[in-house]
């Protein structure tokens, strides 16, 4: 399989963002669909539905993204461009990563209270590429390394994932949106 130069998706963040969820780099299904977490077995949307009180099976992608953002969650990736064979994070060619301009985004989010990395690769890339460039105030934000919602992380059941991801609730409005 040949390495392909991949370009990520645009940030899905509004000015009221309280929690920024960062993946590593969208997988092939997401890039093809131009939608975050498009693989049907990825557990991201069921988790967001539980946290933000909506049923992701009853709403289309634009509405899902709207509900998540209204609940105070933004979505983007640490890596904006890289070479990779296939969809797995492990196939990202080390040294080919070009990070998204996260320090500038984070500096422009006055209500941001926490950053959540979706999986170990996202957390490692954040620590390597982004954290050193953060301004002092933003560097004090809590950064959570949460277990990946990817189907490749099959050892984690949805209830177990939800138990970990529930930590985000402390930074979200008490009355989340629902849909």
UniProtKB/TrEMBL annotation:
InterPro entries named among the record's database cross-references: Hypoxan-DNA_Glyclase, Uracil-DNA_glycosylase-like, Uracil-DNA_glycosylase-like_sf
The Uracil-DNA glycosylase-like domain, residue ranges: 10-166
SMART domains reported in the protein's UniProt record: UDG, UreE_C
CDD domains, per database record: UDG-F6_HDG (cd10032)
Pfam families xrefs: UDG
Protein name (Swiss-Prot/TrEMBL): DNA glycosylase
Organism: Stenotrophomonas daejeonensis
Lineage: Bacteria, Pseudomonadati, Pseudomonadota, Gammaproteobacteria, Lysobacterales
């Amino acid at each position: 399989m040949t390495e392909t130069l991949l370009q990520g998706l645009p940030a899905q963040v509004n000015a009221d963002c309280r929690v920024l969820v960062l993946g590593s780099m969208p997988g092939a299904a997401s890039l093809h669909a131009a939608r975050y977490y498009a693989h049907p077995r990825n557990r991201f949307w069921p988790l967001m539905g539980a946290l933000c009180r909506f049923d992701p099976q009853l709403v289309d992608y634009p509405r899902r993204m709207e509900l998540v953002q209204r609940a105070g969650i933004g979505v983007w990736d640490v890596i904006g461009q890289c070479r990779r064979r296939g969809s797995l994070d492990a196939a990202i060619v080390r040294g080919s990563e070009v990070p998204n301009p996260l320090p500038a985004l984070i500096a422009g989010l006055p209500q941001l209270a926490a950053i959540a990395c979706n999986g170990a690769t996202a957390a490692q890339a954040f620590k390597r590429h982004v954290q050193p460039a953060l301004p002092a105030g933003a560097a004090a934000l809590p950064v959570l390394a949460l277990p990946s919602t990817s189907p490749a992380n099959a050892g984690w059941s949805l209830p177990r994932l939800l138990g970990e991801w529930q930590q985000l609730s402390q930074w979200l409005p008490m009355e989340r949106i629902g849909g």
